[in-house]
């Protein structure tokens, strides 16, 4: 079946540092989504990407839809303590009857 | 501020008891998903509905789990009988046919 490989699995950084994480797949996706999950809460949508090559920002977050449609990355600039959480990528193939495929998540820890 | 709501937020029960979880999707969303999240398995898709019709429930243990949408504003997930291995966080998400899904806060289930 389709799988998303999300890396790194975890990151420990200092406040103020930039962060980069990515997702790759052997399958082509038509939509890439990035979510953040805080402890005790549900995943919250950060950025949605719908076109190959698309680069979208949301505040300090920037995500790109890979040109091959098989990968996506998320960058966080100037990290702050509230960036702590689990970040998930998700891809959709646009085939009828399919749902999102989720990565395993990247756990981000930020020390001040 | 449209949100997916889930009840209960927490549930502790004994093995063998029936558990019912409820979800109210965002008004206007025609697709509803049920996920289970555990430390070991991450986010697993259990079932999803489009226009209230079940599209895929292959991720759900059929002998004890059932999912329904009695109407467009209510989705239910039932476990009968519950087992300790069912302990997890259960998320409902809603969206349109393709694209972003919006998650509820989850139901934290503990089966003793």
* C-alpha end-to-end distance of chain B: 36 Å
The parts of chain B where pLDDT drops under 50 for at least 5 residues are none
Sheet/helix structural class of chain B: mainly beta
Mean pLDDT of chain A: 92
Summarize the amount of helix of chain A as a percent range: under 10%
Molecular structure report:
The complex is a heterodimer of chains A (112) and B (112). Chain A has 112 residues and is mainly β. Chain A has no helices and eleven strands. In chain A, strands 2, 4, 5, 9, 10 and 11 form a six-stranded mixed beta sheet that branches. A five-stranded antiparallel beta sheet of chain A has the order 1-3-8-7-6, with no helix packed on it. The mean pLDDT of chain A is 92. Chain B has 112 residues and is mainly β. In chain B, 0% of the residues lie in helices and 56% in strands. In chain B, strands 2, 4, 5, 6, 9, 10 and 11 form a seven-stranded mixed beta sheet that branches. In chain B, β9 (88-95) and β10 (101-103) form a beta hairpin. The chains are: A mainly beta (112), B mainly beta (112). Chain A binds chain B through residues 31, 33, 35, 41-45, 48, 50, 88, 90, 92, 94, 97, 99-100, 102, 104-105, and chain B through 4, 33, 42-43, 45, 48, 55-56, 91, 93, 98-106.
Layout: helices, strands, pairs:
The complex is a heterodimer of chains A (112) and B (112).
Chain A: E1 5-7, E2 10-14, E3 19-24, E4 31-37, E5 44-49, E6 55-58, E7 61-65, E8 71-76, E9 85-92, E10 101-102, E11 106-111
Parallel strand pairs in A: 2-11
Antiparallel strand pairs in A: 1-3, 3-8, 4-5, 4-9, 6-7, 7-8, 9-10, 9-11
Chain B: E1 5-7, E2 10-13, E3 19-24, E4 31-38, E5 42-50, E6 53-56, E7 65-71, E8 74-79, E9 88-95, E10 101-103, E11 107-111
Parallel strand pairs in B: 2-11
Antiparallel strand pairs in B: 1-3, 3-8, 4-5, 4-9, 5-6, 7-8, 9-10, 9-11
Write a concise keyword list for the protein shown above.
heterodimer, A: 112 residues, six-stranded mixed β-sheet, five-stranded antiparallel β-sheet, 11 strands, globular, B: 112 residues, mainly beta, 56% strand
């Amino acid at each position: 079946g389709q799988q998303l490989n999300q890396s790194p699995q975890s990151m420990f950084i200092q406040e103020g540092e930039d962060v980069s994480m990515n997702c790759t797949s052997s399958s082509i996706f038509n939509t890439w989504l990035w979510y953040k999950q805080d402890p005790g809460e549900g995943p919250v949508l950060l950025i949605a990407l719908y076109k190959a090559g698309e680069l979208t920002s949301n505040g300090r977050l920037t995500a790109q839809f890979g040109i091959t449609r098989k990968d996506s990355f998320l960058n966080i600039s100037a990290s702050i303590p509230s960036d702590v959480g689990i970040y998930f990528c998700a891809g959709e193939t646009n085939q009828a009857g399919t749902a999102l495929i989720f990565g395993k998540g990247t756990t981000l820890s930020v020390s001040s | 501020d449209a949100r997916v709501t889930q009840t209960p937020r927490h549930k502790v029960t004994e093995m063998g008891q029936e558990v019912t979880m409820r979800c109210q999707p965002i008004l206007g969303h025609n697709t509803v998903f049920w996920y289970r999240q555990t430390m070991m398995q991450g986010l697993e898709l259990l079932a999803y509905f489009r226009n209230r019709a079940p599209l895929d429930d292959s991720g759900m243990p059929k002998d004890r789990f059932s999912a329904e949408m009695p109407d467009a504003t209510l989705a239910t997930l039932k476990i009968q009988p519950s087992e300790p291995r069912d302990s997890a966080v259960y998320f409902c998400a809603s969206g349109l046919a393709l694209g972003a899904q919006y998650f509820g806060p989850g139901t934290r289930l503990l089966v003793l």
